[in-house]
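tool_call predict_complex ligand=adenosine monophosphate
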Amino acid sequence: MSFNDLGLSDALLKAISKKGYDTPTPIQQKAIPFILERRDILASAQTGTGKTAGFTLPMLQILNQGKHLRNRPIRALVLTPTRELAAQVLEDIKTYSVFMDIKSLVIFGGVNQNPQVNALRNGIDILVATPGRLLDLHNQRLLSLSNIEILVLDEADRMLDMGFLRDIRKIISLIPSKRQNLLFSATFSQDIKKLASSFLHNPATVEATPENTTAEKVDQLVYHVDKSRKPALTVKLISEGNWQQVLVFTRTKHGANRLSEKLVKSGISSAAIHGNKSQNHRTKTLDGFKKGDIRVLVATDIAARGLDIPLLPHVINFELPNVPEDYVHRIGRTGRAGASGEAISLVSEDEVAYVRGIERLLNQRLPNEVIEGFEPTEQPQGAKPDNRNKRSGKSRPRSGGGGNLRRRR
Ligand code: AMP
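tool_result ok
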């Protein structure tokens, strides 16, 4: 199937070809026709599946077909959990609407509201927002939601994780009941299902990947190692593997800072990104990482959520998340839109139970290995040592360097 078969306008096809896409991704193939038919959508899609274009392209087409009203009221609202994701969605909207007369804007908290308010006064067709700042400006009567025709909830599961349920309900109560609703979520908890059934009308269900499974292209591997040796092992993997663009996840903000400092001391350019950093810092750091000036980005789950880093070859879980679904989100950073990637988890003895939780969720065993010189000195709890891969010799096919590092036990 090509983009031509999806019923998109010439202006959009031109923008898609300018961006260099040949083929719509599965979520785009499935979602775009339904959205153009003005159906509500319940979509299961992680970051990396092309979901943003999946809702943006048909939304632009619908808005462009309609008439611009006087004063240009907001006609489409996209809610996202984080500022970074909001900024990226706006970037995509701008890219795809380059040949259209559509005005879009992003608003989020943590920065001065005045430039956002001034831009709103000039009239906006599509508003991308985080829930807090949106309600804040609405409460100050600085924006109106009474002409919304399309509502998108992007990464709805993460919005609920971050405690935005009340805000979302409030926002829904402020917009006209006759509208089209598009809900995108990587996972489907009971809470998401409840939210979906409360406001979607006869939704078409579309799935990019089966529920709670990881992208097939991601090569996953667990290295057992003592907690205290993890920083040194991270340095070894990155430098000996000559990895050039690596996203490392830590569980805490302090942990992210500490590891990033350690990497820098070892001669590896690195920066930490987490909720305590200013918006400016986060934007600059992400830009530096995308351009290749920063080799390693150390992030907490919330900060990394929704980052659009194409062709990211390496993800390291410096610590495992205690929520197995977060593992799925994390490794969704790699192997995106057709590229292959590698996700490595450094697992200390106290984290073995998390591996089991992840394996249960994925319904698959993760291959596990030990690296020579980093053999754990503590016996893992809850896992028999003979669960580990003791085979020697043959090496697994690798997507990156460092193939000579491993020794299986
Ligand atoms: P998303 O899941 O929306 O975060 O998109 C993941 C990445 O895939 C982004 O870098 C997009 O630019 C890219 N992408 C989206 N659609 C396509 C497509 N049809 N072909 C190739 N890449 C795409």
